[in-house]
## 1
Amino acid sequence: MTTTGSPTTDQLRARFAPLLERIHAGAVERERDRRLPFAEIRELAEAGIGRLRLPIEQGGFGAGFDQLTEVLIDVAAADSNIVQALRGHIGFVEEVLVSEDAEYRSFWLREIASGALVGNAETEKTGNYGNPVTRIVERDGKLLLNGRKYYTTGTIFADWTRVTAELIGADGESSLVHVAVSTAQPGVTTVDDWDGFGQRLTASGTTTFVDVPVDPRFVIPLGRDRTLIWPIYQLNLLSALVGIAEAATSEIVRFVQAKSRNAWNPLVAPSHDEAALLTVGTVRSRTTLVRAGVLEGARRVGAALELHRAGIITDLDFDSAEAYVAQLWSVVIEDVLGITSRIFEVGGASATASSRQLDRLWRNARTISSNNPSFHQARAVGDHELNGVPVASFIHAALAPIPQPDAVTA
Amino acid sequence: MPTDIPSDAAPQHRSARTDRDVLSRPLGPAPRPEVRAAGARLSPVFEEIAAGAVHRETDHVIDHDAVTALRDAGYTRLRVPVEYGGDGLSLAEFYPFVVALGAADPNLVQALRAHLLWVEQVLLRPAGDPLRDRWLTRIAAGAIVGNAVTETDNAAGQVTTRVTRDGERWRLDGTKFYSTGSLYADWINVHAEGPEGTSVWVRVRADAPGITMTDDWDGFGQQLTASGTTVFRDVTVDPDELLFQQYSSEASHAQALAQSVHLANLTGIAEAIVRDTVEYVRHRRRTYSHANTALPADDPQVQQIIGELSAVAYAARATFGTFVDQLEHVQALVAAGAATEDDFTAIDIAAYQAQLAIAPQVLRAATQLFEVGGASQTSRSRGLDRHWRNARVLAQHNPLIYRARLTGAHLLNGGHRAVQYTVGTAG
């Protein structure tokens, strides 16, 4: 849903196209040299990537959530690392937009409009989402944050990071909260120790907080009110996967068009070879379908966000938005992983040259997909269809404390 | 074909025997003592090679010691007849060793592929042929043969590398790419054009003056096969090593034989996928709160995925075993001089079918294995993505779409001939 005067999707995409072309041109080199996309993300922020969803009168573009998703797919096609690095920011903006706290909302809208980016710091190696060891404790009348988070995707590029923590009140009462803290504060250290074989430039490493002062106005209770943060986060990864499928399709087209040698079928030009025609045709079809599915998910979540902002959202609206997005996972994962593997069927060992880094597409897709084993989602969708169990109960379980198993003997 | 390498030795270096060991026990008739003895020699070498696979890839180590260990334990002479000092294994007895090496490190299967194919070529020479005696003796004594066949700038069907007469001597000049395994080899088997456009195969010593090898193969998988460039400049050729042989016009089982090594390797990768995924889950403690159970190993969906992966490995072994039995049959006909063009067509099509049945499933399994874990499973320190990268690059030999089309065309219209394809640039 767009507000009056908002740009069309084509206009938004055109705005970023020249910059994304440059970002795409450097993707192989960044991957090979493991150079984090600081400059690229900064340029995107300056072009407005972080404030697309803000109303025009508040310095944004008034873009619908589906329009944002279209742009993110383009960004992912240029470099999928960047979309994941923006995941925390995209979610944070949506939380701000539906916040009922006027002071909080106006502070953050101004901050985001000025180009600030917000990363995230949720996952822990020792604790877990529902039972973090990261704590905010009151000392001498001040709230201090201490702890260590892993997979703090994008935080290294961001001005702020949204941290989940256990808040220990003066009365000893504890509750689960999230809080945005400035990454420039002393005591906040981010290290790029992420060593996955894919999405290597997301800087999904460790962030440590040592006696970091916390602004009490930014402390928000977690889990009290229902939000759409889960489908928003999922759609970020799904957009990245669709962008990878788009990149795989266009990169293999370019590869075949540039080829003069048709190793296995020397009498036919590479672009007229049956293997190339079939491969490109199949991956194009699958890319189109996963794109359509993810955009429909974005449209539905966008509609639910509008209802949320208007204060008229019902449980049923949450349920149906979540159920729709959950349905996308297993098929999008399977198709995109299939696409990034099948492109090589156009033939020839030269497609596997490290200098082309075409395997990065599979490695990136595989790594994104490993954020959530898809069978969890498939099972939740089945439970929803068969037994009417809302997907929300699966999500709540995902956010609940993890039972700690006994040590396993090696 | 038996499905596992037999050995008198107890399972090596395992903390506990698992049900998998029981499942993979060979069925059928007991293996011959020679096969068991070879298994006892090679099993520890395979285990050691498997243990170093991730490290070798991460640090790009061309591990001559691993190849030496394989040679010393007899891997390179398993097919050489006993009277020459080999183990005299049949193809069906031999291939489980290739599969096992593929599971340990598929780079080494590929690096030694040219050697295995040369051994087969030598074995088919008539009894009493001096080349046959000479080479079987050499191989039994430990000689390793690499190859240099493919060129990058040639037109289709043409070879720019030349063997020419230079006064009293023969010389070799040219540049070859994808000269797989040559860095590990003592000899290189080179395909060249001889006088008057003849096709000639010639063995030269890898350390002969005038040979330069560069490890410039930069594929994202099979990184340690040393499939790089070899340059020959005025290399002196022993006339006894000139083997004039048409490259492409005669029907043969050469392509099926060449493909069999890739199939063994892919089957080994399927085994490795099951091994590594089981290992990962058995030691994994971290789970998801929304998972079904506290421990991943107890999760029905994780168990289901492991079951599916194991079925891929099972199907690959079964398919490959059937193919090897067919190959052995054709090989025997060839040795007896009784093979017909139809036999070659049949084994060629069987190789295509086996490739179509095995390769896509192994690639799929190499992708699906990550469904049992989370982001930590993608850590480069585990190197689990190597299975997909290696399988993808192996499957790159001979696009599957052509294989399917040729198979279908033969079933519909007949007429397939098992002739060597050529690689080149469209004119």
## 2
Amino acid sequence: MSQNRLFKKAGVEEYDLYTLKVTVNEVQLRGFEIEIIRGPVESCGYTVRVLSRKGELTGLGQSSCSQSSKLEKCIRDSKYLSQLNLRKADYEFPLAKKDSEPKIADNQIVKNGEKSVQQYADSLLRNLKTEAKSKTSVKPTFGKIRTYVLETLLENSAGLRKEKTETYFYVELALKVSLGTKLAEFWPRKFSRTIDALASEEVLPKWIQLAKDTLNARMPVTKKMTVILNPKSVCDLLVPTIGSHALGEMKFKKQSLFNKEDEVASNHLTVQDDGLHDFGLLSSPFDDEGNPQRITTVIEKGVFKNYLYDQKYALNMNEAPTGNGLRSLSLMTNIMSKHALPIVGSPTNLSVKPGNAGLETMVSEVKNGILIEQFSWLNPDRLSTSFSSEIRNAYEIRDGEYTQALKGGMVSGKVFDMIKNISGISNQQHMESGATAFSCISPYIRFEDVQVVGK
Amino acid sequence: MATRSYDVFDLLEYAGNQMEGKVEYWDALFDSQSSCSISKDNVDERISLPELIGIQLRSFKDGVWLSASTYQMEKTRLKELVKYLVRSRPKVASKAKLNELKPSKLNVTMPVKKNPADISLESKLEDIRSFHKVACNLDKRIINVHARYLDSQIERIFVNSEGSSMRQKVTRTRLLIFSVARENSKIRSDFESLGGTKGYEVIEECDFGAVAKKNVDSSIELLKAKTPPSGEFPVIVDSSTAGLIAHESLGHGLEADQVIRQRSYLTGLIGKKIASESTTIIDSSKVLGGHGSYVFDDEGIPAKENILVKNGILRQFLTDRFSASVLGCETTASSRVESYLTKHFVRMSNTYFAPGDMTLEELLEPMKKGVMLVHSNFGMEDPLGGGIQCTSTKGYTIKHGQIETPLTEVSLSGSVLELLKSIDGVGKEIKFGSGTCGKGSEDYVPVGDGGPYLRIQKAILSGG
């Protein structure tokens, strides 16, 4: 029976059906050897949302299943749930609109994920074996190399039918360096859309250098000082905080600290939500409700400009949806089970506009500070924006020069105070996934007067 | 399509039989997870019924694992996947063999007082609405209250080449509340969570008024809380923060996959003193009602209680079959998967400090100046470096043995071994909490942790 007929049979008039098929291939390393080859790992999920109406009341119910044979039950369950939570709120499934087409797939992964991970693993191990022969030998203790192919089909009762194929590539490595009894580690984890973005000969030299430098690291001193954060740390600092307070939903619930035209940051800071950036981790022609994704300016030269809307809060606040209704990924959710997540307002790729100076120029202007390349887990409170996180890999800067590697101790503060004290933004953007946030496009950012805690 | 238990056993054995004689070892795991999730705040009410069903097959030969997973519960698809599992493997130098184990037969449904599946959705929704309403009306400064209910029923069926044939059904139920307090531009929030391997009794036995008031009072108190001092201080941690320290700082370093990767700061320390004499730390998958409890792990090993540190002496690592074989020790039933889609890793279950004999007043009494950390929020492991990051949602200053000014989020860092050696007082009352744990940033499994109040002579603190 066709899916339309299943909905008709259940007496459902308004609905959407989100179908996600994912195939994963993976190699995991133990030291220089392959521990496990995984694949194909295949998942399939159907999520049905049904909208019921009774007078001015609307109710949305959501149910998921892994097999098409259970779809009929899934529709009945969703209908039943939608009738249980009837409330005074507007909702309607979006009509089809014209989408843009950002690049979101790597053909190499689509064609043969299994071969792609094997080839990458070979190249990575070859490069690492060369490095292991040096005096301060750097060795992987473990590694994960993984490809994803996601095929999505979204259909709704308003006649919308959209499809996309997208890819992800994930690399995680723990690089250990030893000299005598001294040990140190750099533990990078990165998502990209393509294999080339994480080509081992491109990323390894910096990762190896960070591991080696950490061998002689000490703890920082306790002091307020200049702090430069790398793009990954910026991702974890800004996406959960600016990304939350910029949501229409947060405004509606009186939880946002942003008002339009408020000065919320230093005039160095311009932030866009860029849902169309080629190979952006959350780029897509359409969001998970079917609205076109787009570019929205959130903060311009320190002034808050626009909220981000999913379909529900756009309707309830008389605004146009901005393509921010997502089954929101974080690093705590498995991409393969994404279909079962609820749709919520969420930023796509927050993009920080680059400044004029190179990183080295920014460093040269620092009298007393640190450059942080990795925290243990930078996880700010998204409402209060306060945070405190342990430093894993960093450098001390004195009179414009790197003087010492640092590890341990903490950096703490309130993100919304820190963004008022930005003194520089570097001139090159990097696509990053953090430890808390899934996607951001950012340069290095320099903050003044930040609390650092150590011995 | 097979979903009845006997059909699933048949499917798994069919897949295994295709591998028989072609590999050294195989196993097959069926995973069915069905949940009910209700979340309600002042504006939204979301109800969903997610479900995940599939099979993971693994084979081991010449020191290398191969695995494949599918949602297609059909013999034809499994037969195709088996082709991937019997192919040739890359050559590795360390051709470790798996220790042979006696086969187990188990078919256990972990008992709960009230099966959530027997409670109507209307009743669940009504209860969550009541809980939400109670919290909303407590203080005008509370601008939003999120109440969340989650029950999950996980059925796992396991067979392997040694003849093990096992089935377990584990029910977990959780209730969470998260209230948001606002005064002008100051916003603070705190959460409270209840639950474990329990049924709907979590809701029925919950005093909604008391739990909501505790949570709301805490969020309101945070509005007036000061920024924590930065630097080294004597510290008292509550049971939830003690649990977080046991889990993040020590537990992850004891996961034996890290040891055989040569990535644990605890390698070579078995039998050595690593903590003060008053310190005993346990990981047990048998804690009654513990959120991390199970009947058998995902390699079919029946649940165990493992004493990790006894009176300050490090006793053992947590192992799966492979690491136990390499290290020449028994497996501790610690191999777990998030779902049929993810890899087996060595994981903790319920990790906790054993109780001592001191009251909170006795722990506080000698402290002239210090900080108390309460209500753990999150932490991160540092298996090679032996560092700590543990963050609590709030704290208090301690002056002359008295708890004084409330503090906002406090983080604790430093060296695990220095911290464990500086524990000089252990409370006598133990409490457990429930949460989830990732291996690094992925592969989340339900865990429990806990302990009594601990007094630590010196720790590095900071807060936002």
